[in-house]
Amino acid sequence: MPTEYLRYDKMVENALRGVVREALRQAGERGLPGNHHFYLTFRTNDAGVQIPDYLRDQYPSEMTIVLQYQFYGLEVEEDKFGVTLSFNNSHERLIVPFAAITTFADPSVNFALQFQPLGGQDGPVGVDETEEDEVAEVADEDTAKTGGTPKPADDAKMGQVVALDAFRKK
Q: Which parts of the sequence are annotated with region: Disordered (predicted)?
């Protein structure tokens, strides 16, 4: 009979995904206070991810969205969230399961979380196996109007990313 262990690494990761869920829930109910804004990177090829085909073609492995000034209809459920964003002056609805999120950051308070894929998910197993991040960012009115991308936050302002690999049994 194999020995079973409590999977604290998975428990901690699930709890941290709950932090993302709660932050999004509060933003959906009350808006984003002060300078808060969220960068969310997710795997576009995971089950349950619903994005327009042209975005999936443009970002076949990962995509980063920014929730700051122009986002609409943010709805948060237990296992996923939905939001409408503007891409090249066209509003598009995205549905993203929390299991597909690889990174969550709020640069305004130097907070960031990095996640590993949950068991049974399609897509890369680790960070080394992912393609170079491709980014689709809509952060402010000027960016949406020009079709450009916002200036990335300074690395020093991004804060420390919490990686759970150090706690995983090898």
A: 122-158
Whether 41 contacts 133, CB under 8 Å: yes
CA distance 133 to 59: 9
Place of tokens 């576009």: 44
Q: Is 1 within the bounds of a domain? A: no
Name the domain count of the chain: 1
48-80 pLDDT, tens per residue?
A: 999 999 999 999 999 999 999 889 999 999 999
Any idea what the CATH number is for the domain that residue 151 is in?
A: 2.30.30.220
Query: When comparing pLDDT for 142 and 83, which is higher?
Result: 83
What span, in angstroms and rounded, lies between the C-alpha atoms of 168 and 99? 18
Q: Which domain holds residue 131?
A: 8-167
Is 133 part of any domain?
yes
Q: How large is the average pLDDT for residues 142-163?
A: 43
Q: How far is the C-alpha of 168 from the C-alpha of 45, rounded, in Å?
A: 25
Q: Is residue 64 part of a domain?
A: yes
Cα–Cα distance between 31 and 39 in angstroms, integer? Answer: 15
Quick one: which of 130, 163, 162 has its CA closest to 46? 130
